[in-house]
User: What shape does this take?
Amino acid sequence: MILLTNIIGLLLFVFVIWWFWFSTPRVQKVDSKIIDVIVDNGVYTPSPIEVKQGQELTLRFIRKDASPCAEKVIFEKWNLSADLPVEQATEIKIPTEEKGEFIFTCQMQMYRGILKVI
Amino acid sequence: MTKKAQLSINGLSCAGCVNTVETALRGVAGVEQASVNFAEHTAFVEGDVAVEHLLDAVKKAGYEAAELKDESDTEQKQAAEFAHYKQLLKQAIVAGAVGAPLFVLGMGGFLPELSTASGQLVWFGIGLVTLFVMVYSGRHFFKGAWHSFLAHNANMDTLIALGTGTAWIYSLIITIAPDTVPKLAQHAYYEAAVIIIALINFGSALEMRARGKTSEAIQRLIQLQPKTARVVRDGKELDIAIGQVGLGETLRVRPGERIAVDGEVIDGHSSVDESMLTGEPMHVEKQQGDEVAAGTINVSGTFLFRSKRIGAETMLAQIIQLVRQAQSSKPAIGRIVDKVAAVFVPTVLLIAIVTFLVWFNFAENDSISLAIVTTMTVLIIACPCALGLATPISIMVGVGKTAELGVLIRNGEALQSAAKLTTIVLDKTGTITKGQPTVTSLDAADGATEEQLLQLAASLEQGSEHPLASSILKAAHERQLNLFEVNAFHAVSGKGVVGTINDEQTILGNSKLMSEYSIDVSSLNARSEQLLRQAQTVVYLAQAGQLIGIVAVSDPVKEDSRKAIKLLIKLGLKVVMLTGDNHKTAQAVADSVGIKHVISEVLPEDKENQVRKLQENNEVVAMVGDGINDAPALARANIGFAIGTGTDVAIESADITLMGGSLYGVIDAITVSKATIRNIKQNLFGAFIYNSLGIPIAAGVLYPVFALLLNPMIAGAAMAMSSVTVVLNANRLRMMKSGREQ
Assistant: This one.
């Protein structure tokens, strides 16, 4: 029992490190010019989003979560931000000239999304 | 998703245009249907397309376009927020109503032991009731935690769901099979799980209330926008929703009404209160040809104006947009914290696992129970919210506060730099002075007349854009003088202008220009000295190598410049005046407003150099200027302040824009920035101290020495209050006094 608990504890420790820092969720490849991003339950869906460099891209955020945490979305890299009214679509035109991985978050960094430009 | 959009189109002059616009709109990818109504000058579009692309397409086709929309966003937002607030309270009350009696009964020893079969049954019943409460009051934590987990992310929901979930599952296990743990550890934690959920929901509701106040400034700006407007269509006046006002429409404004959109007065005159945008209390006179801005109040007369900018294009909408953007941006200090916040929750999870294992392996008695309690407490007490909120919430209040005072701060970076300034460089014309120079005296040399002097000077100035030119032209216009034709005109930067009038070379400018052309000005030296000492600018005029006379121009100092400069010096700042004017005039103006450091006779292109020199002496420099002539210097300075006159200021042009044109705005920007940065530091200090003390105490570091273990419910209360405290602290910024009130 003691041994088993310790083994489970250590495995959990390793799992937390691996899951949150070393593994990445499945990427959604998108060709469309407009992508609907649902803001609910603490996550942006879809995320990560993968687009091609130079592709015309507008992200349309649809906020379902009424808690104030979800009220803003910020793309720090381009100093872009928008207020997201509940149950409404808010469009943000995204520059895709530069390749890279760009994070978008709520003000408190709890909602986190990834945009990959390849 | 199919979406509908309505656009106002300006420039439709014939039915053929309808076709052009429709074709342009249909050419945009995603558009399913597009129709243009020629009579109403509107377009109706359906399809999966961004409005911005539609506007671009219409503009490319050669027309102006703007989106027409329903302005009910704010009310909807408030309704949604209120519903969420009520929901959180209800969830807190239900959880509290079950948790509190269980807690009291447990403390009083009224609940049975788990070692008997009947006791087990009672506890199983309690387990079911609390499960219902956890589902009703805490499902958002569990849903959030699960979705975040799938996205390889962890947040506050993760911690709460794990903390309370562990407590409940452990309790259920020992309810069903109490003998799996030693007798001492046979204690269920159902009540702790629901009380924690009650406290955190209650804390979130309180935080939401307090957060509502932090965005009051922007709400007030949004409310400046009237809901309806009175348009004149086909000779009839009708009240319509603001979203339906098109470009180029005629609107009537009656006394006491708010102006609905930006436009130009076409008939009537009035005085308008623009204080809500500029912070300036004085009313502004408006007559035909003057611009009016949405959100300002018509005080006295009735007038008609033509709409020029609607929807997101109005000055008010742009200010709101700029403030919103600035409120979302972070200074460098906040970005460091973001890095910590991003790894905070997984780190807490690791600490929780270590805590469990240490207690489980090393506690002498009751190890499983201690391990569970400490792990749960670690998960509950850790508060990523306080950390994440600390910077953005203060920025939101600080930037909102300055916007109310007519000061627009571009971003968090500008705010942080404004708090570190050591030197303020003020341009003279238009910044310290009103920037509306008038001709105060004309002194003709022997053999010339005042009229001749003014006539020649005004003729030369026709082609000049210098602020002095307009004053000379105005004086000539008042005396109804005819102007001569000027040939071979050219401006000598920072010195004056040269041209040929009636085949004679004519020169107008400062003493430097006169000596360059070897003009003898000695006959009027005494007079010019006298004028310079009176802070007047002296301009010499010569024709065919002979001095014709001198024109004195004076630009009065703004009423509040002296007081504002005194306050800036009191704030510990070095105040420097920078001007192209000659030293004597500059010194006279500087003396009149109390400035000790004067840099005069600076060519426009050299202003940037002067700013750089100050920076090389380790000064953190702000440059205050009109944003157009001083653009390079504004860009060079650590912070560029563009000072506007009323509503025609380019708000995109500088780090900080002073809408009101008063130097008090500089004081407001600096004091609010300093207070905001201080506020952020307090918040961050509090949040770091809270977490770095709270987590070890929760993990039980005090137990071996003081036998002190934190109750997980206390941890829940502390966690709920920590983010409320951060919001309340940020709210203190709203109470700050403005420069004028000091």
